[in-house]
Amino acid sequence: MGIAIDSAHPGGRMGLHDKIGASRQDRGDEGAAGLYAVGMDMKLELVAVPVSDVDRAKEFYLKAGFVADHDHTVSDEMRFVQMTPPGSACSIAFGLGLTKMTPGSLDNMQMVVADADAIQAELAERGVEVSEVDEQPWGRFVYFADPDGNGWALQQLPAWSQGAGGSGQNPNA
């Protein structure tokens, strides 16, 4: 199976539709891993967030500290707003005509933060309704939701996790 390049995507990136239809036979015994060259990176770039009021959502995410990257009205049926959390390589997009998801149906979008206490205090200071810090063996969490109810979890990794520079071995396991 050849790799199809979709010229409609910036930089000639492969379109999602080019790989979704791949059959088990096309993939071989390796499953999805057999579709791509060994060591090929895939980076999540954009997540659609379903909202009912675009301006209200944009105001909320600005208040939460997201950076407004784009706000383009393409037509009466399509508006594209892209925002990026500070320090993230992945953005969110919402608007008109972007997704069939029901507003508020995203649950548990997760980001990693350096300090759960600091982010909880900053979000509260910015006027975002945010939970207290939730202590779990696998990290410290803060939760919030946008005006439509799309839920977010902010996780401070435990010191032992590889993502936080540790060994990856839970000393309590």
The largest sheet is:
4 strands, mixed
Number of E strands: 8
Instruction: Please bin the fraction of helical residues.
Output: 10-25%
According to CATH, the homologous superfamily of the domain at 46-164 is 2,3-Dihydroxybiphenyl 1,2-Dioxygenase, domain 1
Number of helices: 4
Q: Kindly, what is the distance between the CA atoms of the first and last residues, rounded to a whole number of angstroms?
A: 44 Å
H/E topology pattern:
HHEHEEEEHEEE
Give start-end ranges of low-pLDDT stretches.
1-30
Q: Short summary of the structure?
A:
The chain is of the alpha/beta class and 173 residues long. It has helices at residues 17-20, 24-27, 54-63, 116-125, and strands at residues 46-48, 67-75, 78-84, 91-96, 109-113, 134-136, 139-145, 151-156.
What does this structure look like?
The protein is α/β, with parallel strands linked by helices. The chain has four helices and eight strands. The chain has helices at residues 17-20, 24-27, 54-63, 116-125, and strands at residues 46-48, 67-75, 78-84, 91-96, 109-113, 134-136, 139-145, 151-156. The strands form two sheets. The chain has a four-stranded mixed beta sheet, covered by helices on one side. A four-stranded mixed beta sheet has the order 5-8-7-6, with helices on one face. Strand 7 and strand 8 form a beta hairpin. The relative contact order is 0.13. Residues 1-30 have low confidence and may be disordered.
